[in-house]
Amino acid sequence: MSASRSAMKKEPVARSTMELAPFVWEGTDKRGVKMKGEQLAKNANLLKAELRRQGISPKIVKPKSKPLFGQTGKAVSPKDIAFFSRQMATMMKSGVPIVSSLEIIGGGHKNPRMKKMVDTIRTDIEGGSSLHESISRHPVQFDELYRNLVRAGEGAGVLETVLDTVANYKENIEALKGKIKKALFYPSMVIAVALIVSSILLIFVVPQFEEVFTSFGAELPAFTQMIVNLSRFMVSWWWLIAIVIGGAIVGFIMAYKRSPRMQHGMDRLILKVPVIGQIMHNSSIARFARTTAVTFKAGVPLVEALGIVAGATGNKVYEEAVLRMRDDVSVGYPVNMAMKQVNIFPHMVVQMTAIGEEAGALDTMLFKVAEYFEQEVNNAVDALSSLLEPMIMVFIGVVVGGMVIGMYLPIFKLGAVVG
């Protein structure tokens, strides 16, 4: 009898998992106020009954129309996962059950992909899965580090504390990534705009000047002739230039993704670039320290933690160094000794790690290391922005201004002859 009851309990959950579909509805509440919304349900009649139970008189209940070109909405970003972690931590600390927390979070998301993922996780948990098992079905959005931390939190019965730690970690890492992107994005965009403006001048503006110069019948200055020749080349072969540049970019990206040797070489090269290289060094150290501290604090064994941390450093050179550290720690070396052997971490980091190990507070000391190097990244990015602004202005002045001067040189020369 008990076996049949358990089967009866499980069967509706399995069916609901298969048959839940999104519906949109419109209706009025008891005061006659118009309301509308969107909700998952097995069918329209069950949704109408649920709305009536909530005191809403449904007027329209219909399946949500599917988008014309597949699923709408942005891909789930790391910022979405950071926000999800913060919401889960806050609600679970407030005593809200995990299923209710997921229902509230899913209902509040405007991104359909994120909403669908959260609803799927909630349905899996209602079906008997743990949170770790549920998010493991979404490995792209929840990386190995996230999954291991959640598993450790569930095993120790401190899931809400671990989620709070994960939320802090994700927020700090995303803030750090934002600083790095800011350092690289601004100059890249300005240079790209300068090149686009120069191309427009060469293709559309310079030919007009060339017609005027031809009517003069005079010999052009060497600098102006060079610009005219470049313009002729651009007008004739712009399509080939676009194909070559586009193909080179696509080829580079594909080769970079598929070749670990190329990734290692590029990451090593970036670390040697003046100013930018130091920012990337500090960023990788900050990410290593914070990630190791979070995993160790959550109760993940140190050797396993280092294996997870390696991929979170954001740089292949540091990733290989951390994997070598893991191998040394697995045979009995202290972390600070293994760190010293790879010869990539600053002396201060090695010493603080040694102090943390001796005091039995490795996670606390690594958190301090992370905070220090994150601040170093912030300061370096601000200094870089101040340094780049005048350099970028000079670059734009030389490229665009030089082209304009080159076009007006014959006019100046003609004016001098007439005068």
Automatic annotation (TrEMBL):
<keyword id="KW-1133">Transmembrane helix</keyword>
<keyword id="KW-0472">Membrane</keyword>
<dbReference type="InterPro" id="IPR001992">
    <property type="entry name" value="T2SS_GspF/T4SS_PilC_CS"/>
</dbReference>
<keyword id="KW-0812">Transmembrane</keyword>
<feature type="domain" description="Type II secretion system protein GspF">
    <location>
        <begin position="84"/>
        <end position="207"/>
    </location>
</feature>
<keyword id="KW-0813">Transport</keyword>
<feature type="domain" description="Type II secretion system protein GspF">
    <location>
        <begin position="288"/>
        <end position="410"/>
    </location>
</feature>
<feature type="transmembrane region" description="Helical">
    <location>
        <begin position="392"/>
        <end position="411"/>
    </location>
</feature>
<keyword id="KW-1003">Cell membrane</keyword>
<comment type="similarity">
    <text>Belongs to the GSP F family.</text>
</comment>
<dbReference type="Pfam" id="PF00482">
    <property type="entry name" value="T2SSF"/>
</dbReference>
<dbReference type="GO" id="GO:0005886">
    <property type="term" value="C:plasma membrane"/>
</dbReference>
<feature type="transmembrane region" description="Helical">
    <location>
        <begin position="184"/>
        <end position="206"/>
    </location>
</feature>
<dbReference type="InterPro" id="IPR018076">
    <property type="entry name" value="T2SS_GspF_dom"/>
</dbReference>
<protein>
    <submittedName>
        <fullName>Type II secretory pathway protein</fullName>
    </submittedName>
</protein>
<dbReference type="InterPro" id="IPR042094">
    <property type="entry name" value="T2SS_GspF_sf"/>
</dbReference>
<dbReference type="InterPro" id="IPR003004">
    <property type="entry name" value="GspF/PilC"/>
</dbReference>
<keyword id="KW-0997">Cell inner membrane</keyword>
<dbReference type="GO" id="GO:0015628">
    <property type="term" value="P:protein secretion by the type II secretion system"/>
</dbReference>
<feature type="transmembrane region" description="Helical">
    <location>
        <begin position="236"/>
        <end position="256"/>
    </location>
</feature>
